[in-house]
Design brief:
Elements lengths: L16 H29 L8 H28 L5 H38 L4
Helix pairs in contact: 1-2, 1-3, 2-3
């Protein structure tokens, strides 16, 4: 069997609307991930992380990430209606949203780590 030769990509055949559609979907996914992270953090705050103030920092970071993603999505739509370029602002907002999600994951991970440290210390302490 012989392999078919690779065809060059036909960038000119791709619709200009595709990039905007993909960016809009990315903002929707960032908002969904942020809301999911906030929901997980709130659930953990009500159970194993009830004594950890750090868990609430992650809720705030995830919440701001979700609000920012929705705001960026709305801004993208507004720029398209106004026929203004949206690439630079969309790239910036995507980076900020991803940074907030990363901060939320880090804060939540820190809260879990410190809660496990406290549990390990309490388990090894001998009552007098």
């Amino acid at each position: 069997m012989t392999k078919a030769p690779l065809q060059p990509e036909r960038i000119d055949d791709i619709s200009a609307d595709l990039a905007y559609e993909l960016q809009a979907k990315l903002f929707e996914q960032l908002a969904t991930v942020s809301l999911g992270g906030a929901g997980l953090a709130i659930t953990l705050a009500g159970s194993i992380l009830r004594d950890s103030p750090l868990v609430w920092l992650s809720v705030i970071e995830f919440g701001i990430g979700a609000l920012l993603a929705l705001s960026a999505h709305q801004g993208l739509i507004g720029r398209l209606f106004d026929r203004k370029p949206a690439r630079k602002s969309a790239k910036t907002m995507t980076g900020v949203c991803m940074m907030l999600i990363g901060m939320g994951v880090g804060s939540l991970g820190g809260a879990v780590y410190f809660a496990s440290e406290r549990a390990a210390i309490a388990a090894t302490a001998l009552p007098l």
